[in-house]
Amino acid sequence: MGRYREWQGTATHFTGKEEWSIVRRNQVSRFIGRNIELFTFSLPAVIYIFVMAYVPMFGAVIAFKNYEYDKGILGSDWVGFQNFEFLFKSENAFRITRNTILYNVSYMLLTTVFALLVAILLHEISKKWLKLYQTAMILPFFLSWVVVSYITMAFLDHQNGFLNGWLTALGFEKVQWYFDAHVWPYILNVVHLWKSIGFSALVYFAGILGIDAELYEAARIDGARRWQMIWNVTIPQLTPLIIILLILSIGNMFRGDFGLHYFIPNNNGMTYSTTDIIDTYIYRALSTLGDVSMASAVGLYQSFVGFVLVVAANFTVRKINEENSLF
Amino acid sequence: MPAHKGFRWSTLFIHLFFVCLTLTMVIPLALIIIVSLTDEQSILHNGFRVIPDNFSTTAYHYFLKTPDTLLRAYGVTILVSVIGTTLSLILTSTMGYTLSRRDYGLNRVTSFYVFFTMLFNGGLVPFYILMTRGLQVKDTLWAMIIPGLLSPFYVLIMKGFMSKIPYEIIESAKVEGAREWRIYAQLILPLSKPALATLGLFIMFNFWNEWFNAMLFIDNQKLVPLQLLLVRTMNSLDFITSRPEFASAMVSFDMSQFPSTSAKFAIAVMSAGPMLLVFPFFQRFFVKGLTVGAIKG
Predict the structure, then answer these.
(1) What interface predicted TM-score (ipTM) does this complex get?
(2) Across the interface, do A286 and B48 touch by the CB < 8 Å criterion?
(3) What is the helix (H) or strand (E) element at residue A78, kind and residue range?
(4) Chain A residue with minimum CA distance to B32
(5) Residues 167 through 186 of chain A touching chain B, CB cutoff 8 Å
(6) How far is B289 from chain A (nearest CA, A)?
(7) The model's pTM
(8) Which chain B residues contact residue A243 at CB under 8 A?
(9) Candidates B49, B120, B264; nearest CB to A307
(10) How far A124 CA lies from chain B's nearest CA (Å)?
(11) Which of A136, A185, A186, A199 has the smallest number of CB atoms closer than 10 Å to its CB?
(12) Separation of alpha carbons B20 and B141, rounded Å
């Protein structure tokens, strides 16, 4: 760093016009010389990102075309906003947008509240127990949604499931869970909480461990009780972390959890009204309906609104606390 | 940690809370093991029971008789995880290292180039077309490896960790005439072992649990990984029972007795089980990873 500055300083001593181009060429070749090795290091990743992230961004123009497989992306005919018009005229656009947002809001609130509670309580117990509870809590995090869907099926199966077994034992009617749209908001929230709480609690727990021990010491000397310490030390100290995580998830409001919403309701058409989100809709439009243009219109709609939300969220963070902003 | 001595009611309640929580996490897992061990006739008569009338290991016998499908799926998953993790760590660490060097002239440009992809993406359709028509990796192992090779988020963590390595170390190596690749290989990588281990595990788990790309791109029965095997057996066991190896091995069995329900769960147990036994050993790395700088980068 220091050397770089020095060299810049000497470069400004040249002032003559005719010398400028030489200086310029000199600067360029020195710049290349200084950075070529590090650039070579980044090259594999740079190429990878170009192919996997930037090329598809240009491919998004497909949303404005009537895609035909044999004509390819460039060869297909332009149709302007026709795909979007079709999308927004159907009731699907409203349904999937509403579901995606509502589910994300409730996931965010539930997970934050419960994870905080668990993290704070974890901090109150001795180390030996801590490990046991931590291990148990994070178990579901390591399962894929596919495996979790087997677990939910064991509970919800109409014929054999545990839940229906218990309901009949208590004298109630069996419930056709997979056909009943009303129950899914509850089921999905419970399943999501079950899988994610361990990891989220760990994030907050790591945050609590980072709190200066002297603050607790001072509180103890002041005669603070246990819950007073939680209320007056732990929570205020965690607030920045909570806010960052909340705002990050606001930025992700338009990105749904495909695995959760595809596998857990078993992709059943009867419950689409309450389970279908943007991500599952795109997947179905592409894989089952084969409607490529429509799928890409929804995809671009999702990316674009998601982008606006992330930038807005970051802007908000920046207003509150510049250090915490992402960019 | 606020230490409290002696018995307190609040401590008892906290433990009670955590015991309930632990049970909530563990019981569902125990239940699918029980279902996989339940006799098919008991399921037909009584549905799933926490304590079934008759236990039976028939479901497992069927699969252990013809382990080919399952072993193959394990093989594919392991291969994808190992190749994927190795390549991913190379990409992540080289990019993370470049970005951690504040004296790198293209630092800001490259940072933007990498992290912009976190904000905006082309969506599923262009990705699908790229993979199938552009890279032509449909029905190859690469279809499961390539998409997960680099995550900007992991680059951020790697960069955060490597930035903490004092610049003087790099500078003094340079003064002694070491080239960049030597500094990277002999100084930076050994010093970054904790970050490499943590990220390596995260990446490995992602590859292990990968089903999305497999669902999109894999039709070839020979390349089906564990998770896709589970997706396919979820709705019917035909995927396994219609295989010729299975039929030929089953001559001695009465196929009408095939325990189709418990067999499904047996497959789930056999594919998720081993990982759940191994993972507690890795858990501390995950916790460490959170403190490596996951939040602030």
Answers:
(1) 0.86
(2) no
(3) strand A77-78
(4) A151
(5) none
(6) 10
(7) 0.85
(8) none
(9) B120
(10) 7
(11) A186
(12) 42
Closest partner CB to B32 (pick from A58, A154, A202): A154
CATH number at residue B180: 1.10.3720.10
Distance from CA of B15 to the nearest CA of A (A): 8
- Nearest by Cα to B113 from A307, A61, A43: A43
d(CA A257, CA A279): 7
Subunit contact A143:B94, Cβ cutoff 8 A: no
Where in the sequence is the domain holding B14, given as residue range(s)? 9-66+236-286
**Same domain (yes/no): B62, B72:** no
Same domain? B183 vs B158 = yes
A140 inside domain = yes
Question: Domain ends where: B160, B184, B218?
Answer: B218
Instruction: Provide DSSP, A118-183.
Output: HHHHHTTS-HHHHHHHHHHHHGGGGS-HHHHHHHHHHHH-TTT-HHHHHHHHTTPPP--GGG-GGG
Q: For B236-292, write each residue's pLDDT tens digit.
A: 666 666 666 666 655 555 555 666 788 888 888 888 887 788 777 777 666 666 655
Instruction: Give per-residue pLDDT as tens, B115-140.
Output: 888 888 888 889 999 999 889 999 99
Q: Are residues A185 and A309 in the same domain?
A: yes
Same domain, A147 and A250: yes
Range in A187-196, A278-287, B122-131, B249-258 with the lowest mean pLDDT: B249-258
**Domain range enclosing A232:** 90-324
How many independent structural domains does chain B possess? Answer: 2
- Answer whether residue A99 is part of any domain: yes
Residue contact B119–A138, C-beta within 8 A: no
